[in-house]
Amino acid sequence: MKAWPRTISALLLVMPALAAATGMEQRVRTFLLQEAAGLGDSIKVTLQSPSAPLPSCDDATPFLPGHQRPLLGPVTVGVRCDGQVRYLQARVSARGRYWVAADNLEAGTLLEKDDLRMREGDLSALPRRAATRLDELVGKELTRPLNAGTVLQDSVLRARPLVRRRQPVKVEATGTGFRIERAAHALEDGALGERIRVRLPDRKVLTVVVSGPNRTRVTF
User: Fold this and answer.
1) Burial class of residue 166 in the structure, from the number of CB atoms within 10 Å of its CB (0-12 exposed, 13-18 middle, 19+ buried)
2) Distance between CA atoms of residues 77 and 32, nearest Å
3) CA torsion sign, 90 to 94 to 99 to 104?
4) Which DSSP letter does residue 52 get?
5) Which one of 60, 73, 145, 183 has the fewest beta carbons within 10 angstroms of its own beta carbon?
């Protein structure tokens, strides 16, 4: 019976720290849910138990160190508290829709909706920069062949080139008080807004910006 008062005293000392830790972790969880909003149909945040007790803090401020985007999978979260910074480990998962190749597709394929199949699952388990929106895919060109069922990623997509290597192009050169247009040959493919090299008839090479089908521009 004599042990009970000590136990109660110990619990009374521990309870405020547990409450503070729970409050700080809840702030981190809420912060991550807000940051990840819109990444999927349902978001789940799992926090790892901290290696050391968290301090009591009434104004804990969570933040993301570095550039952690997209915010899926393992995440490090910083928490500022009374001039100090603690770091917590978490995992953010989201269920949602993504797209895969419907059939074997060759490099250079201009994607149409029939080339794609929608799937649903844990987006945090997908390869980085997986395409989750149809409008990110239709009308894009594949830069390499894909097997049926392969997840579509930004790294295998590009905008349809408006200028082709070795093809004749027009170069519009503008500057203060002048505008001229010259013929040239493209040295590489280029989509709208991309920078490419062209060769003029005098063999001079310019870096220009693709402005339309077989058209480029440069400003001096």
Assistant:
1) exposed
2) 9
3) positive
4) S
5) 183
CA 165 to chain centre: 30
- What is the number of H-type helices and E-type strands within the chain? 1, 12
Q: What pLDDT shows up at residue 54?
A: 65
Q: Is CATH 2.30.30.760 the right assignment for the domain spanning 168-219?
A: yes
User: What is the spatial distance between Cα 150 and Cα 137, in angstroms, rounded to a whole number?
Assistant: 14
* Mean pLDDT (whole number) for 16-38: 74
How do the domains of the chain map onto residue ranges?
A: 3-94, 98-159, 168-219
Kindly give, in sequence order, each residue whose CB lies less than 8 Å from that of residue 108, ignoring residues fewer than 6 positions away: 141, 142
User: Average of pLDDT values for 12-40?
Assistant: 69
- Cα(114)–Cα(103) distance, integer angstroms: 9
Residue 220 CA to its chain's centroid (Å): 34
pTM exceeding 0.85: no
Tokens 């062209």 belong to which residue? 198
Give me the sign of the Cα torsion angle 70, 72, 78, 80.
Answer: positive
In whole angstroms, give the CA distance from residue 128 to residue 126: 6
Burial of 45 (0-12, 13-18, 19+ CB in 10 A): buried
Strand partners, 217: 172, 209
* Highest CATH level, class, for 98-159: alpha beta
